[in-house]
Amino acid sequence: MPAIVDPRRHLGCLLLSIAALHAPAEAADASGDIVVTAQRRAQKLQDVPISMTALDSIRLADQAILNLDRLGANVPNLHLSRNFGTSSGALVFMRGVGEGDSIFTNDPPVGIYLDDVLLPRSTGALLDLIDIERIEVLRGPQGTLYGRNTSGGAIKLITKRPEFDAIGGAADIALGNYGRFDARATLNLPLAETVALRVSALSRDQRGWGHNLTNGMRVNNQDVKAGRAALLWEPDSRLSLFATADISLDRSGPRFPQGFRANPDVTGRYTNEFNTPDGSIDNFRSADTNPLNRTETGGASLRIDYRLEGLTLSSISGYRALTSRIGFDQTANAPGVGSNVILLQDQKQHSLSQELQLTGTALNGRADFVAGLFYFQERNDQLTAVSFATPIGTADARFRNNDFFNAPSRAASGVGTWSPYRPQLATDSWSAYASATVKAGPRASLTAGLRATSERKRYDVEFLSAPDTVLILSDGSRAERSIAQSWQDLSPRFAADYRLDGKGWSALAYASVSKGFRSGSFDGRARNIDFALNRQQAIAPESVWSYEAGIKSDWLANRLRLNIDYFINDYKNIAFSASRVGEGPPEIFRQNVGDARIQGLEAELNAEPLPGFILGGWIATLNDRFTRLKSSPGCTAFVANERDLDLRFTPSFSYQARASVEQRLGPGQLRIGGDYSAASSYNIALCNEPQHFVPNSGIANAQIRYEFGDWAVTLSATNLFDHRYNSGSVGSVGYPTEPRQLLVQGRVRF
């Protein structure tokens, strides 16, 4: 039985301190009556028969959540962190459904949406949160109403809209350890009675908390600049136009990997303990003295809503673009010590989406419906190279990671081999959907929905001998290939809910059956020329059938909220990427491994036992097992029966506990809060190798804020007890979680 982390050692002192500071304050509704649009119409959170979590701007500020990577700890059965080696890639698993490889040929099964526009790539999706109205997290398949490939769930970011009434805004500056300096600002500017503009900007810099001992340079630094503008025009009561544009420039250094300690008892095996060069987990001895990470992402959207009697016709147009050039070490070896595998990628991506949607009521208000058409087009192009070289000598034996082809990119001795190739992917997806909720009495409702999808992808790959020069094989043929494949799918959803009300309490009971679909993929990591040109085929689509029942309840005049759900997911044709070690650089291969069943319980609680004293948190369970193995994943060296493999990021038990207290102090308001999240042990890699086993992932955060008038000062700490564990790993290296971060933030509203 995996060990469960006991939070009492750390959290107990925190809660006692909070309770001791408590004093009566003005009563507030602890439950927070958040209005959400999970079903494409405005509803109170507790009226939506879907297991979901919503965080509004107040809670984001209370917990000092400044980036999307803090979201996972606040949502049951959601793992959300930085992807392996990247600074802005999102690694997302929800209820055990996710994608571990960020390459563009693998679509994320958990959709991230910014103002209803899909962010199709995990690279660049780990957004800084600025001027956010709320975040909605929908657990389980959402294929009926949401874009494409949301078989695991959906994460919706809704930004604040411009306001017509007055000029206003906010600005803040923050200072933190390791040389961190943040600046953020938002301005709301009415341009006319029916036109308003809202602009936001941020800068985040940090010199880094690690050192590469090879050349003495700091690593894991942060350098992000971002901006956003939104324009709202409402010429009359029926018509509104909401246009946005955003851009983010990320020049942060790639995360440096730390090697795992070798297992002294088994040759060639590793433990899950990190090396500590010169006594520190944040010291690295790497030949990669010139890491590269330049990511630029952005987009624009236009939403037009036209309201008729009982109907709203909406058009949602979106454009997203991404360029990402990265080069970093995947082996963490020092010069002259073994070999180094350097991954180089130069990616260019753009996508266009268009949705037409009709919402309204019918049957004299007894039915609510939504129907629409959705089109999505995406183009990806990525120059890729993998260096397998053995640099020798001192710090001068370095890799030039901005050079994919020329000999100086190799070791000073000239030793090394390159495999430059260019995978490309063109995607076109069409779908039509409809959903209706009909009242079946004064308390009951029935919902039925369906999405029909047709998707076509074309995968092209060419191997290069020089820039823009295709390699000529020994038989005189060009080393290139094109594969095209189409898929069709029907994804239904059926749900029933029943309203219960009593004196001082209310509840909504619901049950649902739904299907999610993730379209097929291609092995964009395949570098074996014979395989890529002669044997590679499309990877079959995944599907998830989810069966769920739950109850959402409010008690004690809304001072206690308890939501509970239980789900069973039948996960079919699971596609995964894994590494296989052989001669040369480790090969990454992708296949459909089989089917699994994942089931679990989720419970969320928010309470205000005393005025101004808030308690909250959640617990979640996951039980997973393979029900069918289509092909061997190649893990027999680690488990006798591969059916016993534990799926990735599926801890059997996880939880969060949080508390806060607010009281008047002098001329202002003092708030002290904290949260602790943890999970039982889990595996990061499908083969369950020992080095990818995470036994203890407990993290504590704390905040102190003092508000007086339009001013506020916040002191926050993330990873308060400086617990370092593996956040992601591949092969013999992993990426430790960030160390304790302290931040002092001053904010003014005007």
UniProtKB/TrEMBL annotation:
Residues 45-154 form the TonB-dependent receptor plug domain. Pfam families: Plug, TonB_dep_Rec_b-barrel. It comes from the Bacteria. Residues 1-27 form the signal peptide. It is found in: Cell outer membrane. GO terms for cellular component: cell outer membrane. Its main location: membrane. Belongs to the TonB-dependent receptor family. This is TonB-dependent receptor.
